[in-house]
Amino acid sequence: MQKVFAILLVSLLLLSGCAEQKGDEMNFTGAPNEVKIMTLDPGHFHAALVHKKMYEQVDPTIHIYAPDGQDVEDHINRIEGFNNRADNPTDWNLEVYRGPDFLEKMTSEKPGNVMVTAGNNRKKTEYIKTTVDAGINVLSDKPMCINKEGFELLKQAFESAEANNVLLYDIMTERYEITTMMQRELSMVPEVFGQLVKGSVEDPAVTKESVHHFFKYVSGSPLKRPPWYFDVNQQGEGIVDVTTHLVDLIQWECFPNQIIDYTSDIEMVSSKRWPTVITPEQYAKVTGLESWPEYLKKDVREDGNLYAYSNGEMNYTLNGVHAKVSVIWNYQAPEGAGDTHFSIMRGSKANLIIRQGREQNYRPELYVEPVEGASTVASLEGPLQKAIEALQVTYPGIGVDKQNGRYHVILPDKYRVGHEAHFGQVMDKYLGFLVTGELPEWEVPNMIAKYYTNIQALEMAATVE
């Protein structure tokens, strides 16, 4: 009898140890290699940019689960390019599973504790929901949903993530762009900015405009787009894609660290969309395909060109503040140019404006301009200098220069790390969240509010045609 009792006691202790070990897997401490990444169905180059650098906290083995095809091969080639580059090469080890059951295989094997996804958006929300249901953390590229049905599923995914004690987070790289960071910082200095005005439809308090291009260079090489990238049913329309960043920035800058309730704080005023025309020759150049896939033929008109709804504009209020967001996709930028961004925050004393045009050599620059009747260049000088001096503690080397009735904020090149490097910065932030075991309390409700805004804009734009 004593022998049987001893065997039972040992068995119970072993089971208890296993349970404790299983629970410890989710208690991140910041120790080396404790974060183990699984990449799911990578179809967008953003999935590789997360791996452009190494992280002490992340295991160098990446487990990739994907359907067999060109998307996963392109992803592998990008990471191998990082491994083989001459300057500061990475050391990722890739373990790849190719097969139609890639999602089920990942959630059943679970060789990792964080799933990264960036690719075809048609099933992305389903991927996210299934993964958090399986008790796995998720770091997702935007957008996390592209239609009304996806938004409802995304809300369920956030509920599941909370129930399973995992973190679901999207990759908001634009929060790490230095001119945007400084725009936000200065908007919180009443002596310089005053208060954010309410604005109107004709003259919004906040405007964010973004111009992108289908053909561009990434890491020094021409970017190859997957053929489905031009299908709004798979990539999503422009009004729910890049606008994710712009809507996020408006929330993040205008109401920093505040919870936004999508059911009461957002009102869509107007919205519209229009297509970018892509010729067969342009499509072939950027995808490598000589003919339209079957799923794109619905968008090819009598002139033989593809009409992709990549462009959109929305006017809405957020807590009573009028905001305008617009996104434009051209095929290719003019020589010497690239993707551009314009942003203005209008205060009662000064306007904070980011410009990125020819005058700025297509590099974003931040300006502080006095509001007529409320301030002057002279009256802003003292408060602005004082604000910059305070910010120099966190951002050494920044300065300000008076020019043409306004101030130009001087930002050293060390802060201009570029879009691709921002993915590593987001990962660093997310790794910190894993250690604390939680996101800031405003992040989840504001992610939901952000996608609600996009979907409302899409629904309204579709009804006004």
What does it look like?
By secondary structure, this protein is an alpha/beta fold. It folds into 2 domains: 25-170, NAD(P)-binding Rossmann-like Domain (Rossmann fold, 3-Layer(aba) Sandwich); 175-463, Dihydrodipicolinate Reductase, domain 2. Helices cover 35% and strands 23% of the residues. The protein has 13 helices and 17 strands. It has helices at residues 2-24, 46-49, 70-84, 102-109, 124-133, 148-163, 178-187, 190-193, 243-254, 280-287, 377-391, 419-436, 443-463, and strands at 37-40, 61-66, 93-98, 114-117, 137-140, 168-170, 206-215, 217-218, 221-222, 266-278, 306-318, 321-332, 340-346, 350-355, 365-370, 399-403, 406-410. Strands 10-11-12-7-13-14-15-17-16 form a 9-stranded mixed beta sheet. It is globular.
Task: Identify the notable features of this structure and list them briefly.
single chain, 465 residues, alpha/beta, Rossmann fold, Dihydrodipicolinate Reductase, domain 2, 2 domains, nine-stranded mixed beta sheet, six-stranded parallel beta sheet, 13 helices, 35% helix, globular
